[in-house]
Amino acid sequence: VVVLVVSQLRSSFTTMTSINYEELSSHLSEFVIIDVRQRDEVVEQGQLPGSHVLPVQELEESLGLEEESFKAKYGFPRPSPEDPNLVISCRSGRRVGVANEILQAKGFTKHKLYHGSFLDWAAHGGAYTKPGQPYQALQ
């Protein structure tokens, strides 16, 4: 019985697709990127171009908001559980796993996880932005 339960849990958590720097950077405008870091981290460190900040601590509650309330609070449309272009990012990849568990519990099945997140983006020299500033190349 335990083996069956573990097998079922494992299969439910292996459906998420990882995305790497090359895939993400070459199709950046096609994705809705949610950065689950705290807002002050994003202000200090920067963020991937076009990404939206939704701290992991707010993720579960935010997904229960009505569409209009979500957009008013976060500045972008509430993500759909079936959206194959949703990408989750953070600083180093740790919070991506936490966000993934929350998303799966809310019925999300098609999103992608950027395990390398901002540090990987920086290591590849990807351009970034800070709120209120133009894009910059990482040095």
TrEMBL record:
One Pfam family per UniProt: Rhodanese
Location of the Rhodanese domain: 27-130
Recorded superkingdom: Eukaryota
PROSITE patterns the UniProt entry points to: RHODANESE_3
Residues spanning the signal sequence: none
PANTHER family reported in the protein's UniProt record: THIOSULFATE SULFURTRANSFERASE RDL2, MITOCHONDRIAL-RELATED, THIOSULFATE SULFURTRANSFERASE_RHODANESE-LIKE DOMAIN-CONTAINING PROTEIN 3
Name of the protein in its database record: Rhodanese domain-containing protein
